[in-house]
Structures
1.
Amino acid sequence: MSGPLTGLKIVELAGLGPTAFAAMMLADHGAEVIRVERPGSRPADRDPLLRSRKIMTADLKSAAGLETVRALVCEADGFIEGFRPGTTERLGLGPDDMLRDNPKLVYGRLTGWGQDGPIAQSAGHDINYIALTGALHAIGTARQPVPPLALLGDFAGGSTMLAFGMVSAMLHAGRTGQGQVVDCAMMDGANVLMTIFHGLMAAGYWEDRREANIVDGAAHWYGVYETLDNRFISIASMEPQFYALLLDRLGLADDPEFVRTEDWQAQRNDKAHWPKLRRRLADIFRTRTRAEWCDLLENTDVCFAPVLSMEEAPHHPHAQAREAFITVNGVVQPAPAPRYSVTKVAPPRPPVAWDEQEARTKIE
């Protein structure tokens, strides 16, 4: 492996998607990640979340399995687990045990609710975690919230925050020799992601309701529109110069409904006009196919992009030019990000099986 994290070693206790994604990020950027699974787990050599890992099985209910894992962690820079609070303590793999064995260890814990608090022991999923932060309340139609993909809580608020927290703590450990526990809660991470909207609301620029704001589907110049061929395009002509270009490209630069006064910028931001102007734009965008709108608006400062399906996305010319997708073991998947000018990352590879005996031999 190569990348800025080359030389770091992480042990990951197999868990659900969010912990696997955090470990994938670390592996993508050069860390050696060893994933420990239960005996009898299904082979997953085509799972993108498990790429670039060594995968071993160990029976954590046996003394030999626990000894192997603890020996691995003694040599590691980081450890990842995503069980309910107290589970690893009962296994004998809790932070007190591991940090006693390895004082420089960064012990990463990823849960939905965090390690403490009234509902820390309750089960939950992405939608539940973002529900308590105000994020779910802000997403959807005026009538009701709409569940987004499980990205905001599980992966943005959980996995990505855990990876960032572990790298931060490992930098600290490298300087001071002092390890620590990283308590990463998906609720906390999703809450942090809402910071800008709390700021906008405090400044009087955000209403605490759906479809009433500039980026939640209310503004006519920021949203998704259906095309003649029943596909969709996205428009985000937020800045005045981009909005002016949009009107020009649509033949609306002199339309009195859009520009009725000299102070057209104030009219553009007048929420009372938004519903009518959105309907007008919707009628216009339904007159051409998605491909025709791409020909007219793509590669301009209108702030435009076609809404692509997951199957279409890898074939877009920009994605191909940047090699944004790769194929690993026959599976098309997103390439590692971000990119580095010096410590370039190696292409991801399929996970490699590494049995308990091999692990014990390696340690010895």
2.
Amino acid sequence: MADELGDALILDTPVREINQDERGVTVWGDGIEVSAERVVIAIPPTLAGHKSHYEPLLADRSACT
């Protein structure tokens, strides 16, 4: 997947906030702001702790099997 994304893939940049609305998703990190249709979160939110803010809040999936 990384090869297909090419320069659109940003690595080693902590994400601080993710907002989603009817226009898509905006991601803010250290020195970046990116707008996109979709975002892949590659770390479980519980491991991210309080370092990232999600708007709207992520659904509670703890009851899912």
3.
Amino acid sequence: MFKLFNTLTRSIEDFRAIKKGQVRMYTCGPTVYDFAHIGNYRAYICSDILRRWLEYSGYEVRQVMNLTDIDDKTIRDSQKHNMSLKDFTAKYITAFFEDIDALNIERANEYPKATDYIDEMVRLIKTLMEKGFAYRGEDGSIYFSVRKFPDYGKLSRVKISELEQGASGRVKSDEYEREQANDFALWKAWDRDDGNVFWETEIGRGRPGWHIECSAMSMRLLGGHFDIHAGGIDLIFPHHENEIAQSEGASGGKFADYWFHNEYLMVNGKKMSKKLGNFFTLRDLLEKGFSPKAIRYLLMSAHYKVPLNFTETALQGAEETIARLKEFISKLKEANGSHTDISSHLEACKKQFGASMDDDLNISSALASVFDFMREINKLMADGTLSAENAKEILGFMKKLDKVLGLLEFAEEKIPDEIMALVNKRQEARKNRDFAMSDKLRDEIRKKGWQVDDTKDGVKVKKI
């Protein structure tokens, strides 16, 4: 039975889908005003592992991840660059999809943009006003009255009694600290700072607040009650708390059954900050020469509820782990020893891997079971007691595990003509016993991402 920690109850619970065999899941996606940083990608990878495990376990998963293309930051920075909001955010939406593909994050079923759901937001706000949860302030904006919702604070454990009193406690900004919390903006009346970013609607000229966007999109695409809501721990308050209040205030029923939050990513033991020089986007790391698979491995290697300390030393170690995985797959494809019974090895790994993942996605233990399995199989290959038939069965097993991990490559990659030309030139140098030139060419090939091995069966070329 799959067990998952639920932030709402602060306990690990047996996972039970609302509809048997089906899971509806909402993941808070990026605000597209800049390139996403590696802290964002830890959250998306944790959500990816959850989705992959549910699918591996037989569930049909419908996942929605929003794209926040209208908020304080997107307006501010689009104006700074003298660009339309649509053109400005389009650049970062494209970059986001390039990044998640590089990290092998499975695509969600839908990626709704907030600007495409203004009508849904307006209808939701009107419902909240009709039910007495929302009111129009003196500034023309519409606010949610947290005191009208008795369960406010049930996710974050914030107590209404500790919040500021009266109109001075209203918060119009999208993001704020806990001690500033009070009535929050659902609809922001237009002002000069918004420039030409506004919508003419039944509730006035203006734009939505950040919090109402996710409620409107998730309720429209997944229904008013769905299984899992996922995001980073930094979103618990105020964003997710406010989502619950406005969604349940409007529907009168439960919003999401399970709340899934991953812990912070630290960099060199400190909170990531541009001022400290420890702020990285995925692109920063790729430019340093690190591979996407190694970055994925490091970001997923610690349990999602444990803060992860990201260092370049740890990333170099992840590169070595990915190299070990590649080497294992490569050796399996060349196995031609005598046949042996591998059923006990397969069953032990499958059992431990499954038990670990069912235990609140204990990825560290699951990975350990895979490495233990690889060690035992490597012994069989070294002893010459692993047949091609055995290897084929193991490759099939590894492919199944990788549906969860997303780390391996099984297809033979075509060697580029440029690399083959260097390999042939190196072979000619070896033939002429010009070993200095041979070594130089080997290094050049390696810098281009390929490895040359001289074996008794001839030269072997593979992607690093």
